[in-house]
Amino acid sequence: MPPRRFTGWYDVPLTPRGEREALDAADTLRSSGVCVDVVFTSTLKRTIKTAWLVLEALDKFTVPISQRWRLNERMYGELTGLNKAEARAWLGDAGFEQLRRTPPPLERGSCFDPASSLSLRSLVAAGSSGGGLEEGYGGATPRRGLVRQVPAAESFEDTRDRVLPCWQEEILPQALAGKTVLVISSKNTLRSLIQSITGMPMEHAVDLDIPNGVPIVFYPETRSLTMVGSDRPLGSVPPEVANDSRAVAASAAAASAAVPVLDATSVLRGGLEEDAPAGKRERFGAWLRRGRTG
């Protein structure tokens, strides 16, 4: 099996295993009577192809697919492309976990820098997060504005803050209108979204186990997560959170809409060939020392 790497925004293809799991997910949706009205994916081709496969298997060729860069996987910065096992071996467990949670920023112009992508640039310029260029672009060109908007590295909290506007401005309104919205994204993106809309404690959400290619339904009225085709819940929201009226208010407006979500990233094994360039260990060491000193 190829080594597992930090993939993030790097646009690797969906693997044959991922294709099979997409078809299995479609079977699960069909047998459970879930009728998809609209699909949201990231701008990464692994999630887009997952959407194509699911809708083809469901014979739903006219269902609209919206690609949103805000649904992209977490940006791993300079960790992007690194072999996870090797990085843990030379960073040590503590250093690995520290950099995984707060990675060093990617150098602009790197081969892994998404701000250099023409296709992503056009999506942002066209208002892919809803309603034209985002506030903060001002009179800048799409290229310059994109560099300011696209992250060079993200923590879990940063990912949550990036994803939430897409939920609030686009996904939730369609669910409120009575549509079943299928969200196909990546593990960390879905974890961060789930944390936001359920009020799940951060320490639970960062390690929430989201099964590969298994559709999960979020029920806003109970703020619960259930794997489609079973009664087994995914994770849990502690009673003290469920009873917190401030947390409930964040998602109570969704009435009884159900929003299935599907992971398309964790099935990937490999596809990134570049090893850590010379000097990266030294930069990581400096970043770790900076983190320890605040």
Overall average residue pLDDT: 74
Shape from CA axes? globular
Count helical runs. 11
Low-confidence stretches: 128-143, 237-258, 265-275
Number of strands: 6
Percent helix range: 40-55%
Summarize the structure.
By secondary structure, the protein is an alpha/beta fold. The chain has eleven helices and six strands.
Task: Walk me through this protein's architecture.
Helix content is 43%, strand content 9%. It is built from 11 helices and 6 strands. Strands 2-1-3-6-4-5 form a 6-stranded mixed beta sheet, with helices on both faces. Strand 1, helix 2 and strand 2 (65-67) form a beta-alpha-beta unit. Helix 1 (16-31) crosses helix 2 (45-57). The protein starts with 15 loop residues before the first helix and ends with a helix. Mean pLDDT is 74; it is low at 128-143, 237-258 and 265-275.
